[in-house]
Structure formats: structure tokens, C-alpha cells
Amino acid sequence: MPPGMEGLVAAGPAGSAIVHPDDVRTLHVTAAGGSHWGCCGPLGTGGRNMACTCGTLVATLAADCMGPHELHLDPVRVYAFDAEG
């Protein structure tokens, strides 16, 4: 691993919950292009690149054509709760 990337997995922090990008439609990509983007989308190697409506970076999207389309939710910033209970 390059310096500063210890504790990371393929596309996000270790312990990330992984979901399909379409399952979290309220998040948006914060930056496009650069060295961490492939021809069709983000590689997931540049750290968190998805933000919630308040602008907080909460997830890493990996969605280039050469790999899986998956969203890694940051375990420090995202948690699950029962909205009905």
C-alpha cells in the first residue's frame, strides 16, 4: 500500500458496508476526473467521493467499467437505524 493508505481495502476504509450505488440515491459524486477516475467512472482509489445532501463525504463509489459498481459506506460516518421503530 502507498503511504497514507494503510487500513484501506479496494475502495474504502476497512469495515465498510458495501451496497449497490442505486440503493443510496440521495448521495452525489463530489468531484469528477483526475487520476482516480477511469474512462467510465471513479476507480474507488481516491478516498471518499460521495456526499450526502449536507455535503459531508460519507462513502466511496467504485464504478468504472473495468470493475464492480459498488458503494462503500464509511463505517465512521454512516450507521443503520430502524426508521419505523
Describe it for me?
With 85 residues, this protein is an all-beta fold. It is built from no helices and seven strands. The chain has strands at residues 8-9, 12-13, 17-19, 28-29, 50-51, 57-62, 70-73. The chain has a five-stranded antiparallel β-sheet, with no helix packed on it. A hairpin with a 5-residue loop joins strand 5 (50-51) and strand 6 (57-62). The termini are far apart.
Strand order of the largest sheet: 3-7-6-5-4
Whole-angstrom Rg: 13 Å
- Give the termini distance in whole angstroms: 42 Å
Shape: globular
Which series of helices and strands comes N to C? EEEEEEE
| pLDDT < 50 runs, ≥5 residues | none
Number of strands: 7
Largest sheet: 5 strands, antiparallel
Short précis:
The protein has 85 residues and is mostly beta strands. 0% of the residues lie in helices and 25% in strands. It has no helices and 7 strands.
Key descriptive features of the protein:
85 residues, mainly beta, five-stranded antiparallel beta sheet
Topology:
Elements: E1 8-9, E2 12-13, E3 17-19, E4 28-29, E5 50-51, E6 57-62, E7 70-73
